């Protein structure tokens, strides 16, 4: 028997279970048939033979019974049936009693299995049934299995292809996005249309990117002012302007918190490295002071005490806000977790009400940040304040540069060449001191 | 004088039904060094309480949702503060400090602790 070989050649791809089972069964059946010619299982009526193969064209003639017998995999088989040309039907039409067809037996079967790819009109039914001990159900099942296996292979192939192309598209989009973000340019207005960012968030992102550009200008003014050894009163004007510049971002954040507190609190408006240090939608004031303390020398004793006191008060305030937020989270959990399902909508309404308090916490945190910066400028002299703000700006600028370097670092992928090119350009971007200096 | 135990476990002189809520606020505020008007369910109120406890202060807290005339007091506080959020609100030494933002600003600029010491809430 060359049946198995024929089956292997059949579809070129992985050998399906359907065919294997079929081969084994039919092999066994063929052996049995050689041994004895038993009467057809079930009935001697011609019509019964026709029904045994619901995947074959005879289903058209026997639709009610065929569909009830074929059960699960029938839709697949059915669709295959539909593609069969009318020629097949014509073949079946003048069907004479089985006995004549029975001569088409095993040879036909083997040929068909060897060459079967698409079910054209050339396929004959396996009319050999009356000569063999073929279980009607088994044969139907085999046919269905084969059909289902074939379909699932095709589906899998299509799915994998789709995945591959999506993966490539996704990494390209990611690259573009990170490149844009590193240049301080957000999706802004068009992002609102994408639906994955609220309009309040999009508006804020746009305003923030503009603020970052302004920040660059202010930074260079500070630098020039310091280097030019301006008088204290002139420098004071520059420093005060810079503080107003900070006040502006805090005003913008108030609006943003009302529109979309989640956007601020998750830090999606900042870069990854900044997000790492995020506390309640922005920088942690005590951490900032800690960073500055070592760099602000020389300080008078009074100034040192003032700075340490500021750091201490800030820590206490941060702790209080953090505990308040934790209580909010606990309260939210208690509202959502468990409870009667019947009251679901009420539960949700209560939860939404609690969530609204998030805005308050982000606002208080921003208020804390703003107050801290103001107090810093009160403790320090004008020149110290100018240097201090410059330091803050440079610090966040480096964090932003770090973020963009990180996102464009070479990875083990097909994209590695592109990535290394991008890293080079990013390094070039870091060198000139103008870019990426920002704070909030 | 007839004294009544209120929900705060606090002995208070019985007031007439028609007393002005604003007057009541002022009266309550002047009776302790640090007075916080709060709602037991409010998380920002929890934060302000934690702030004072962290400073070593023992504030007198009035939970307005547990007061039979709490609604009137809330309305009075809203008028006093000029916004829709009645609580939390802090009085130190009988004087109005304000809501959370003012309390924070005061702490950061270093004026809160002297006020507390002056009112006798802190001794260090």
UniProtKB/TrEMBL annotation, chain A:
It holds the Pfam family bZIP_1. The keyword DNA-binding applies. Residues 135-179 form the BZIP domain. It is found in: Nucleus. InterPro entries: bZIP (IPR004827), bZIP_sf (IPR046347), TGA_domain (IPR025422). Residues 201-409 form the DOG1 domain. Gene3D superfamilies: 1.20.5.170. SUPFAM superfamilies: Leucine zipper domain. Residues 80-103 have a biased composition (Polar residues). Residues 54-140 are annotated as: Disordered. This is Transcription factor TGA9-like. It comes from Hibiscus sabdariffa.
TrEMBL record, chain B:
Keywords: Cytoplasm, Redox-active center. The keyword Phosphoprotein does not apply. CDD domains: GRX_GRXh_1_2_like. InterPro entries: GlrX-like_pln_2, Glutaredoxin, Thioredoxin-like_sf. Residues 34-97 form the Glutaredoxin domain. It is found in: Cytoplasm. Belongs to the glutaredoxin family. CC-type subfamily. This is Glutaredoxin domain-containing protein. It comes from Hibiscus sabdariffa.
